[in-house]
């Protein structure tokens, strides 16, 4: 899909990777609707990005991805203020092994709620003109993660969901491409919060050593991966982004 001139929604974009995705899409000529459960930080980010990219190109709408009614309002406001939405990046996510229900509801439920709404609003079979959904999974959706089994299972679910819905069978009906992005580590608040909500002190200690164990990438490196995924337009594509490697597509076995 061409990015310039199109309208995108990015969930969880008040900070971290979501903010970087929004900045990169804006730099490529898209209009972006920021959204987050944290309205204070979201409005601060809106102000900064409007100053950098133009007040008519960025808007913030509060949306808790666990709430259907918030998603509906988000889509309506984005369309009203920026134009027809062609790209949804389901990015909001947490790592809370203690509150596993919340982790599943945000990480998996948020992607499914957002994707369902996107199919309803963009689907060619529903009067829309098609579009693209990118679900932000993680390399934790493809690997064993001893320090985060709940987080890993939420990300495995997103990979399976995106690859399945990204099947040609669905595209033939709705003309909406569904893809997923699987980054390795980036230093964001996610890691800090995951450590605070770790399953046990032993696991928290392991999370405290991530910096010395794995290589971090910049958020910009991951954002370049997002752009590649959107521009390649590989329906059902699952793109891995790791430090010091070119981004690469994976097809888990038994496909
Ligand atoms: N940081 C990494 O190393 C890394 C690697 C791979 C994938 N990811 C994924 O990238 C995404 C973004 O993570 P990040 O590292 O930028 O984390 P982050 O904590 O910096 O940002 C997450 C954002 O999501 C928002 N959020 C939390 N709950 C929400 C809800 N219910 N509704 C709406 N917004 C909500 C937060 O307020 C925050 O702004 C997550 O899905 C994460 O799993 C992160
Ligand atoms: C308790 C939650 C787990 C940690 C969550 C915090 C940050 C998350 C970052 C990313 O999503 C990556 C998470 C795990 C990566 C898993 C394996 C790393 C293997 C890297 C490699 O082999 O190169």
From TrEMBL:
Catalyzed chemical reaction(s): (15S)-hydroxy-(5Z,8Z,11Z,13E)-eicosatetraenoate + NAD(+) = 15-oxo-(5Z,8Z,11Z,13E)-eicosatetraenoate + NADH + H(+); lipoxin A4 + NAD(+) = 15-oxo-(5S,6R)-dihydroxy-(7E,9E,11Z,13E)-eicosatetraenoate + NADH + H(+); resolvin D1 + NAD(+) = 8-oxoresolvin D1 + NADH + H(+); resolvin D2 + NAD(+) = 16-oxoresolvin D2 + NADH + H(+)
Matches recorded under SUPFAM superfamilies: NAD(P)-binding Rossmann-fold domains
Alphabetical UniProt keywords: Oxidoreductase
Family matches, as InterPro entries: NAD(P)-bd_dom_sf, Sc_DH/Rdtase_CS, SDR_fam
Enzyme Commission code: 1.1.1.141, 1.1.1.232
MF terms (GO), sorted A to Z: 15-hydroxyicosatetraenoate dehydrogenase activity; 15-hydroxyprostaglandin dehydrogenase (NAD+) activity
GO terms for cellular component: cytoplasm
Physiological role: Catalyzes the NAD-dependent dehydrogenation (oxidation) of a broad array of hydroxylated polyunsaturated fatty acids (mainly eicosanoids and docosanoids, including prostaglandins, lipoxins and resolvins), yielding their corresponding keto (oxo) metabolites. Decreases the levels of the pro-proliferative prostaglandins such as prostaglandin E2 (whose activity is increased in cancer because of an increase in the expression of cyclooxygenase 2) and generates oxo-fatty acid products that can profoundly influence cell function by abrogating pro-inflammatory cytokine expression.
Family: Belongs to the short-chain dehydrogenases/reductases (SDR) family.
PANTHER family in alphabetical order: 15-HYDROXYPROSTAGLANDIN DEHYDROGENASE [NAD(+)]
Protein name (record): 15-hydroxyprostaglandin dehydrogenase [NAD(+)]
Organism: Halocaridina rubra
């Amino acid at each position: 899909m061409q990015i310039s001139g199109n309208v995108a929604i990015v969930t969880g974009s008040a900070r971290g990777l979501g903010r970087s995705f929004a900045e990169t899409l804006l730099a490529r000529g898209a209009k972006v609707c920021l959204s987050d459960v944290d309205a204070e930080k979201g409005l601060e980010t809106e102000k900064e990005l409007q100053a950098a990219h133009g007040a008519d190109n960025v808007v913030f709408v509060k949306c808790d991805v666990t709430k259907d009614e918030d998603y509906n309002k988000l889509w309506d406001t984005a369309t009203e203020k920026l134009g027809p939405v062609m790209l949804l990046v389901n990015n909001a996510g947490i790592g809370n092994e203690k509150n596993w229900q919340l982790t599943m509801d945000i990480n998996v439920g948020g992607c499914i709620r957002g994707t369902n709404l996107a199919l309803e609003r963009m689907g060619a079979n529903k009067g829309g003109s098609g579009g693209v959904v990118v679900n932000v999974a993680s390399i934790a959706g493809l690997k064993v993660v001893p320090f985060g089994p709940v987080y890993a299972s939420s990300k495995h679910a997103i990979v399976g969901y995106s690859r399945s819905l990204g099947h040609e069978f669905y595209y033939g009906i709705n003309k909406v491409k569904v893809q997923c992005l699987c980054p390795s580590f980036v230093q964001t608040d996610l890691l800090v919060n995951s450590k605070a909500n770790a399953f046990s002190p032993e696991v928290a200690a392991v999370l405290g050593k991530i910096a010395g164990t794995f290589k971090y990438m910049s958020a910009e490196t991951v954002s370049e991966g997002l752009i590649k995924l959107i521009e390649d337009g590989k329906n059902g594509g699952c793109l891995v982004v790791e430090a010091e490697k070119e981004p690469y597509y994976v097809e888990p076995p038994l496909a």
